[in-house]
Design goal:
The chain is an alpha/beta fold and about 450 residues long. It is built from 13 helices and 20 strands.
């Protein structure tokens, strides 16, 4: 009874104090965008297409006027933003890759951003490609990104103030004694975090005990961590019943969904996004189709540089319609998706992506038996200067090979530093072999994977 009363008190404080008072005062753009995005769900497809064209025109004119890279691109092709009236006209512009961003970082940042877009923050990401890039994000773009997530969660049944439990990786050297501010934020938004850094079977079973007591409205985390939890819940007989599950970061396969639904007895939703482009697709709460957020992005599916026909896999290329501090126009994510030629049977006005391939990230199993998610290696390697690209491969139970493609400012001393960091902070039993190579071979799937395990039974 005491836990029920405490949970209800926390819900009321979160809903009415944090979401009702604090967020409108401190994050007004996020609140306004969430409201607008929910209203967009009541539009018809033609109205969404008109909104998309309007946003695209504004972004292209801004890029031409204030971003040196795009001014040069347009002038070289004797184009003007008014020549691009429809999303299909974007074919006249070149694709933007991570390599091009690295080579033109200074010229891709807008020289002027309207004050209404708020402050600009610097972010660094390598995503799932192992090719780190630096981004500049204004408050407008950040707020729209998180509001897109808010809309998805609300459509699936979560409401502001409902409890959330997360299964995500914290950075290397996670703090055992977290700052009071971080704990207050978690309490205010009714969130409980379980980290997957170096997760062991004992850790996972302990998480299951806590989750059984918490009964969160939403359990949110990496697909691989969620499936691992489900497998252990079955083996040890834990009865965990969250209100819903949201999987992210990796491809949710049909078998994964079946395991999660049958184990936790709740609806399972998948979402697909990237730091560079926020949330691209969200799962239909009724028919579980992947809706493309076309009121926030232009998404293309290409093969050999040309649009694919419906039901044909193609490379995913995105234009974030709100990225004014650093426009990313026709940005190549490195993933493969299949567009659908049919609308969803629900009332939402957004088109469908039939399937998405190639984002599954392996756990690496250390000699001690602990499991490390790919995000741990990103925290070690993405921030290292002088690395253009990297890949970590577990060859045997105790052998880890890390390949590095050097950038012009590569320092050979970094090799020993990486070897030491991995054995010191992950597992001393690893034999780490860091190799400097000219290029890293892409697998038969066509998708570059930063982390792979060749050890049978490491993680399914």
């Amino acid at each position: 009874m005491r836990q029920i009363i405490a949970g209800q008190a926390r819900y009321l404080c979160s809903r009415y104090l944090y979401y009702g008072i604090y967020q409108p005062l401190r994050q007004p753009l996020r609140v306004a965008h969430r409201r607008q995005l929910l209203q967009n769900c009541t539009l018809d497809p033609d109205e969404i297409a008109a909104l998309q064209r309007q946003k695209l025109s504004a972004l292209l004119h801004h890029a031409y006027e204030h971003v040196p890279y795009y001014r040069r691109v347009f002038d070289e092709r004797q184009l003007h933003p008014r020549d691009i009236r429809e999303p299909s006209d974007l074919e006249q512009l070149p694709l933007l890759t991570k390599s091009l961003i690295q080579e033109n970082a200074g010229e891709l940042r807008a020289q002027y951003v309207p004050p209404r877009f708020g402050r600009i923050r610097r972010e660094r990401t390598g995503g799932s490609t192992g090719q780190p890039i630096t981004l500049y994000v204004d408050d407008e773009s950040w707020s729209m990104g998180v509001a897109t997530v808010d809309r998805f969660h609300e459509l699936c049944g979560w409401k502001p103030g409902n409890s959330i439990a997360t299964l995500l990786t914290r950075r290397l050297r996670p703090q055992l004694n977290r700052p009071i501010r971080d704990n207050l934020i978690d309490w205010a938004i009714n969130r409980t975090q379980f980290h997957t850094y170096g997760i062991s079977e004992i850790d996972a079973i302990d998480y299951l005990r806590h989750l059984g007591t918490l009964r969160p409205k939403m359990l949110f985390g990496y697909r691989s961590a969620l499936v691992l939890l489900a497998q252990l819940a079955r083996e040890h007989g834990h009865n965990v019943r969250p209100g819903m599950i949201v999987s992210t970061g990796e491809v949710l396969m049909p078998a994964d969904r079946q395991v999660l639904e049958s184990t936790f007895q709740c609806a399972v939703f998948d979402r697909y996004g990237a730091t560079e482009a926020a949330l691209l697709t969200t799962e239909c709460p009724t028919y579980h189709q992947r809706h493309i957020n076309t009121d926030v992005h232009v998404v293309e599916f290409l093969r050999d540089g040309r649009p694919v026909s419906p039901e044909t896999p193609g490379m995913i290329v995105v234009t974030n319609l709100h990225s004014f501090a650093m426009p990313l126009i026709r940005y190549v994510l490195g993933d493969v998706g299949t567009p659908s030629g049919e609308p969803c049977e629900c009332e939402l006005p957004f088109p469908i992506m039939r399937s998405m391939e190639g984002r599954a990230l392996d756990f690496i199993k250390a000699p001690s038996g602990r499991l490390f998610h790919a995000s741990v290696f990103h925290s070690v390697l993405d921030w290292r200067r002088g690395i253009r690209q990297w890949q970590a491969v577990q060859v045997t139970a105790d052998e880890l090979v890390i390949q590095l493609v050097p950038a012009p400012d590569f320092d050979p001393k970094i090799v020993a530093a990486i070897e030491s960091m991995i054995t010191r902070h992950l597992d001393a039993g690893f034999r780490v072999d860091v190799r400097v190579v000219d290029q890293i071979e892409i697998g038969l799937s066509g998708k570059f994977r930063t982390t792979m395990s060749r050890v049978p039974g490491t993680f399914a």
